[in-house]
Structures are given as structure tokens and as C-alpha cells.
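Two folds, back to back.
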Amino acid sequence: MPMRADYIWMNGEIIPWEQATVHVFAHALHYGSSVFEGIRVYETVNGPAIFRGREHYERLLFSCKVARIPSPLNVDEWMQVTADVLRANKQTNAYVRPLVFRGYEALGVDGRGCPVDAILATVPWGAYLGAEALEKGVDVQVSSWRRMAPDTLNALAKIGGQYVNSQNIVMEAKDNGFNEGIALDINGYVSEGSGENIFVIHKGEIYTPPLANSILGGITRACAVTIAQDLGYTVKEMTLPREMLYLADEIFFTGTAAEITPVRSVDRMPVGGGSRGPITKAIQEVFFGIIRGEKEDKWGWLTPVAMGEKIGA
């Protein structure tokens, strides 16, 4: 079933989904000149809430800055539009996709003379790697595709054209019978998945690659670090050799789409006992408890959305 909704925000107004169109000569279509975010809205026991929306929109503005594509909205305005589109679509649980991109004026690699268009969509969305994967884990391979070198593209920004690299990683993995791939960086150290950050647990300590290993500074990654430290675990940002993936007692992915998903095997070798480990489970329980509204949101990650009125009204 296609993921869509009745309404979408585009260039300042909420319009029917079918009317949100662009010309085939849009610069972004030819050259990948777009920036985007992925944000979750969860239906908690207290009503719908945007999960870490402000942090996502701050990163969107950073990506716009790096790509030299001006954002038409600031963080507060993006948050307001998100609530407005959710209300228009009567959605209390959704995946939010803001996208800022270059339209068409003239051909040429430097698209700064082209108009800037923007959309915000809210669509139904389940567990990215499958609901079963949240408990049983996923099977992954180390990809033959490397993440970009630090001086080639902007790993810290979510720029559309860069995701050709991620497509290569995940398509290769699925063609080889895996759920996902893990990419190494230019120096052969563990980087990240096609759309997820990675955590490796060994002898009770948690390790994750630093930003210098060509990773996206994930917002769910930051949540996992905060939760783990609050539970009393030591989290170390450290350059990880590939074989740490085989030595690990537990591995899990983090990401807006993937949430917190255990890794069951790497290159057909089981991780630990081949099932979700206790530390991963403990972090999941806090994370999902917060997003469902069952545990205290003590870090202020949720922004409630009143379906009958504007945020802050």
C-alpha cells in the first residue's frame, strides 16, 4: 500500500496531495540539490507528540546552510507547519518529511539561480526494518561500499544527492539476502548503516563511532547515549575496527526510521547469542516507554500537538 495522506504543505500553503508537483527539469531531480529530515510523531497515552522536532529542524537548517539552499522557514515555523499538516490529515501517528530543494530556472551544476521550493508531508509509517525486528533483530552484512571520505561530501548534513551512497549499501545488502548493510569509512573503520547509526556492546561497555568516521550525527543516536548513561552504562565514542562487529556481545542500530533495532548477525555470524541482548532491551524499554507516554519525558523530547488548536495556543 502506498504511503500517502490527503494533504501536504508546499511553498506556504496546505494543498491536496495530488497537486504537490514539480517540473521534470527541477534542479534537484538532475543534481540531487535537496535537503531533508525524517521526524516521528507518536501517539502517546496523552495524545500525539512530535519527537525531538526542534533538534531535527535545527539540523535541517544546518543542512541548508552547508548546501547553500536557504530554508524558507525557521525552526518555530517548521514546528507550526508540522502541527498544521498533522491536523489537516487528522494524523496522530506519522512520519514527517520536510524537504527543501532547488526547482527549475536553468540547467547547470551550480543551481543557485534556481528557485527554492519546500514541502512538508506527514505519512503513515510503521517499523522501518519490520515490527518483528525490534525484538528479534536483523541480519546485516559489511558492505563493499565505503562511506564518503571527509573531504568529499558532507556526512553531517542530510543532502539528497549523498543518499546514492546509502542506496548502494542497502540494495547490495538486500540482493545478498540481508536486511541492511554496515558501511566502513575511507580508512576501513566501522561507520554506519545506510540510514542508521550503530552501537557495539562488549563486556558491558557500549561503543559507537565518532563523527569523524563519516557518520550522520543522529538524533536518535544521541537519545540512546543519554538513556544508556542514565541507566549507568559507560558509552565510549571510539574508532572501531571491523572485527569488533564479530567480537560484540550486542549490536543495535538507531535512527528515526529504525528507532532502536537489534542486530542479530553480521556477515552470517551471530552477534552474541544471536538474539536481542539485555542492554539493548533495557535501552529500548526506556526509549519506547517515553515515546508511548508511559515513562516520564524527563529530557523534554516530546512536543505535544493539540489536534484542535495550534502549538502553544
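---
second:
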Amino acid sequence: MSQPHIIIAGGGIGGLALGLTLHQIGVPFTVYESVRDLKPLGVGINLQPNAVRELFDLGIDRSALDRVGVPVREWALVGLNGRDIYSEPRGEIAGYNWPQYAVNRGEFHMLLYRTLIERAGPGAVQLGQKVTVYTRHSDGTVSARIQDREGTERLVPATLLIGADGIHSAIRAQMHPDQPPIHWGGAVMWRGTVWARPIRSGSSFVGLGTHRHRMVIYPISHPDPDTGLAMINWIAEVTYDDPNARDAIGWFRQVPVSDWAHHFDGFKYDWLDVPSLIRGSTSSYENPMIDRDPVQTWVDGPVALMGDAAHAMYPTGSNGASQAIIDARTLGAEILRHRVTADALTAYDTALCGPISQLILRNRGAGPFGLLNIVDDRCGGVFDDIDQIIAPQEKAEFMAGYKSAAGFAMDRLNAAPPMIAQGAMLTQ
């Protein structure tokens, strides 16, 4: 090949963040996305301060993020009787140099897409094109077989191939043909949004209930100046003791709220009426809480995995999208160090595969919601004085351990140099 070129399989959040990073450092690339028309899909997600820092360094600023979400001011866990278990400030008011954002996942995805097309041109993202198979060559390069929506296939050569093709990744399946099936532990989620008045700080992320029966509630828009209403994202979760008892569970299907809302009829408090909140929604989406078992490596020579293809994890830590962005930036940093070579992918793998594999397992064990597990085990989620159930020091140590594992421990993050220095470019 006359010059290096990277194929990115998948135009989700991770693939687009990698495209923006490669454009920033001057590396040619093409994103191939199987969907024919990108549309704003999904509801709320959180972007942790470590990911927001990288977005700022990519030139995606506060004003852009404010159009698709809202800075988070508080993170709180509340027991089954509506009393606080733990709360803390988040983002800049907590002392971070960068905010945490709760965003509309679909609108954020489209923001990344529009930004990439504006910067790199419309040919940077090829829609309706799916990478199905890769072939490694003796000279260290790779070819990707790409299939369009009509079934026509062609081979496209590249220096490197990055699989950002999600939890059902064809690239991961080829790299790890003996991987276990997708893991489901019995938790079912129903997701939706509703226009309502924000609670607590006005921009609080609240986990309410027990680890087996809970709600997650937070705003993903600024309040309307006239009505005071904001778009509130909610997630309702129930865990079944026997996953096989729920074999009819749908995968990301739309269902009536009335099918499941009765599980939360008792979630009424003087500060929040959950039944009214969820019944105010026009629709809900049902899906299992799923992940994949960690693998030993994300790399096969000139091929690497990133995002959900590498580390699909339970959304209990609000860091799936954040980690995909960190993956992209880490790949960019290693390409600057090692050029467009398999050595860059090996360095990326060494930096992230091990610790993020541990994070998958930590999230499977409830992640930061593990405090709900502890309180549930000790008192069933009902208490008068939380300090008699779990000491403040124990709570603080638990949360500090999770933040460190997830890469957003405040002191370490604030002191870290930029992953990619401003103006850094790969010289040919």
C-alpha cells in the first residue's frame, strides 16, 4: 500500500470517536457501518469526566454537549424506603477539571457522526457496508471482506483493521471462535423517557431500590425555561432468580408500560412518585442486561477490537460509552508512538485489555450499585439510620475503588497529561 490506511468496522460511538481521533492526528481511515441510514437511537447514557476530557480535546465542546445532554451534579443511591444510602457531587462541582454529562444516546451519536463528516468529508463513513471477515497477509497487512445490503461482497486492503462492530461483532467471533455465548444473568431492563420536573439537585443521577429491584432516574436535557420540565431518562430493572424462567424476554423490543409497571407500584415517596413517572411515558423498551465474558486479548496481529466488541459490559457503572471513547483515544496515542503498525495495537492491548476485563466482572457484580447489594443483604433496603447499616468510611472506600478501576479517580485524572497532545500529528 502506498500509504497507511485503517479500516474501522462499525460506526457506533467508539468507531466514530476513533475516526475523529485518526483525522485529528492525520491518519487515513474509512468507517464501514452496516446500517443504511444512521438514526438517533437509544435513550440516556452517561459520559464520565475522563471521556468528556477526550471529547473536549477533540474539539467537541460544552456548547455541543449541552445540545444533547446536561452536566450531572449529583450521583445518589437511595434505599427501598426512599432514604439516602450514599450521595456525592459529580463533575466540576466535585473537583474534577471536566464535567460529567448525561446525554441522549441517539443525539450524541449523531453529533459525532455530523462532526466527523464535516471534518473528514462524506466518504469517511460508508453506510450500508458490513465487514464480515478479515484475512491477515504475510506482509503484516490485512484485508476485510465487506458486504453491502444487496449481498454484494468485495475485499478491501488495509494496514490495520479495528473491530468496533458491537456485542455481536463478526470480527471478535473470527478472532475468538470458541468464545462463550452472550451472558445474561437474569436482569431485565425497561427503558424510556418522560417530560417531568427534575428531582433533588435538578441534575441528579439516582439509583433507587435494591440491586434486584431498582429504578435509575436522571435528566438528559436542560429544563424548558417556560415549563420547568426536562426530558427524564429512566431505567427499571428486575432480576429473576432463574434466567430460564424468562426465556421469552425480548431483545430491545418496544413493549407497553402496562406490561411491567406493576413491579414498581410501591415506589412512592414524598419526593418522588415512580408509578406516575413511568406511566407518563408513551412507550418503553425491554431488553436483557447482557455482557460477554472477557477474552485474553483484543488483538490478532493487524486487527484489534474496541468498544462493545472488546468489552461489552453491564451498564451498571455508566461507563460503556466512556470506555469506547477512551479506547479510541488510547489507540490514537499508541499509533502516534508506534506509527500505523501492529505494535501500536499490541501496546493498546497491553494498556487496556487486562484492567477493563476486570471492570467487566466488577460491573457484572453490580459495579457501583454494589452498595445496594450490601444494604439489601444487611437490612433488606429498609433502614432508619444508614450509618448503622454501613459506615461512611466503608461507603467511601467502595466508591473510590470503583472509580479507580473505571479510570476516573479524580486526583489521578486531574493530574494526568493529555492522552494526545494538542496539535500532535503522525509524520509520514
